[in-house]
UniProtKB/TrEMBL annotation, chain A:
Belongs to the ABC-3 integral membrane protein family. The chain crosses the membrane at residues 48-67, 74-92, 98-120, 161-188, 221-248, 260-277, 283-303. It holds the Pfam family ABC-3. Keywords: Membrane, Transmembrane, Transmembrane helix. It is found in: Membrane. Coiled coil: none annotated. One of its GO terms (biological process) is transmembrane transport. It is a multi-pass membrane protein. This is Zinc transport system permease protein. It comes from Halorientalis regularis. InterPro entries: ABC_BtuC-like, ABC_TroCD. GO terms for cellular component: ATP-binding cassette (ABC) transporter complex.
From TrEMBL, chain B:
The keyword Nucleotide-binding applies. Coiled coil: none annotated. It holds the Pfam family ABC_tran. InterPro entries: AAA+_ATPase, ABC_transporter-like_ATP-bd, ABC_transporter-like_CS, Metal_Ion_Import_ABC, P-loop_NTPase. Required for corrinoid utilization. Probably part of the ABC transporter complex BtuCDF involved in cobalamin (vitamin B12) import. Probably responsible for energy coupling to the transport system. This is Cobalamin import ATP-binding protein BtuD. It is an enzyme of class 7 (translocase). It comes from the Archaea. Residues 14-248 form the ABC transporter domain. One of its GO terms (molecular function) is ATP hydrolysis activity. It catalyses: an R-cob(III)alamin(out) + ATP + H2O = an R-cob(III)alamin(in) + ADP + phosphate + H(+).
Amino acid sequence: MFGTTASLTLFAFAPFDWFLDDLYGAFMEVLARVLGMPALEYAFMQRAYLAAICIGIIGPLVGTFLVHREMSMIADTLAHTAFAGVAVGLFVNNALSLSLAPIHSALVVAVGTALLVELLVQYGDVSTDTSLAMVLTGGFALGSVLITATDGGIAVGIDAYLFGSLATVSKASVGLLVFMTGLVSAAVAVAYRPLLYVTFDATAARAAGISVTWYNRLMVVLTALVVVSAMQVMGVILVAALLVIPVATADGSRSFKRSLLAGVLVAEITVVTGVTLSYQYGLAAGGTIVLTGIGLYVLSLVYRRLGVPTRMQHRTGRWRLNKLSERIHGDATAEPKADGGSDDERR
Amino acid sequence: MNGTTVETVSEAVVTVENASFAFADRPVVDDVSLEIEPGAFLGLVGPNGSGKTTLVELMLGLRRPDSGAVRLFGEPAHAFDDGERVAYVAQHATKAAGRMPVTVREAVTMGRYPHRLVGRFSETDRRAIDNALERVDLTELTDRRVSRLSGGQRQRVFIARALAAEADLLVLDEPTVGVDAESREAFYDLLHDLNANGITIILIEHDIGVVTNHATEIVCINRELYFDGDPETFVETNALADAYGAEQAVLEHDH
């Protein structure tokens, strides 16, 4: 990971500068005038929006697979160990008088932990839940110890990593996010079929000769990449939200492809609204984005419960009939499900 | 798929030689030997916890035996990588998959993934998918979400996925748990037809009546092999009682 970001800094900076200032910047200035929002002319706001848009793409892209494998906790765990990675970077810098970007050490630590967590899930004797909780708190504990071990000198700047910040999104971190968006999107596009098969029916995928282990590894590594690159905007504590909440909001989709697209769409609405509100009222960006996401989720829930058939839901008469009888009888008398059915079938 | 079955007539689909497997120090499969010929409809029966699922997992190479050998289409099962020849519907697979936003067509298309992990699907791929949907009578429901189907319909989705794979071997682990009686009958008729067309079937089933009705060969295990032969003989022997009796003994032994 060192290599990619380092070479990005070296080789891609000039074209990225051009993109950021001349192309994207110019577009945002036009947008600022059209919408009458002068905030869009500030370079830092332009960077914030670009970063948020990138996170809105890669979050649900990886999150959809995680959520449906019931592994959402992994995102949170990796975020917290990425914090340890930041602390390690700051600690090493402090001790050896280096000037490594902490985000680099965070990437290395998070990817390393991702693979470790995958091993724990696969071979560990303890339950997944327990081992994740242990790694999560362990990572955070290591981070806090390392910070205090250096006379509090490195505590400066830790807040930005914990809670995220829009104003401090540097050109380098936007560059990293744009790069990661390309990388993660390409990886998901290429590995879409095996990832979907493994998510849907891991045993059958294995019997069909797909290496479940390797695709699990790919999934957790992608999660680590997303979490670390989004960490500076969202903050360690809240970053996992964008891998989970938009996906839950888009759960009414019929097909998996649509649920991916709907997840990205919901996430984009979430981040753009969140960033705008956060700037307008001077609120914490990460928190505002997460609360916006939860707000949209609640809205979607209400929408579905009220039984307004959206395009995403199937519109058979049978379904409307069920909704009707549900309202009349006060319970969902859908088709009999011998296995008891599952909750979302009644949405 | 008929072409390949003709070619493989001489070769046993599965060969198990003195295979044993234990979870930690608890043996679940003990010195089992059997052979499954192409075109067989094998019913695998035995009490709960008798190692049926594990035996199937050994056959498919999902687990390696602690001792003995398992061959799948002539190759060591664990090294077998011709995934498109095998389709497996695991126990509770349909229930677990029930929550995801996946359409019937998407699920059935997964059967073609071993053939084409990346890149565009060919005309052959699409035809295989369409044929499979038609075969199990799901053409009308292709855009429905799998989670919104009844148990019986869901079961057919998984069978269609296996058909789309054009697999030679179809392995089903208690496929009709949670399926109503009527759909169950139709489901076994479908399996019967598929078998008549040359697909080898291994079926784990707790309903002994169903197995003796449809299968051409019965294997009864409870850790050890208790019976391997045709259904008529199975009904006449004491194998079933012995196998279930052995479980009793094991339970008492444990306490």
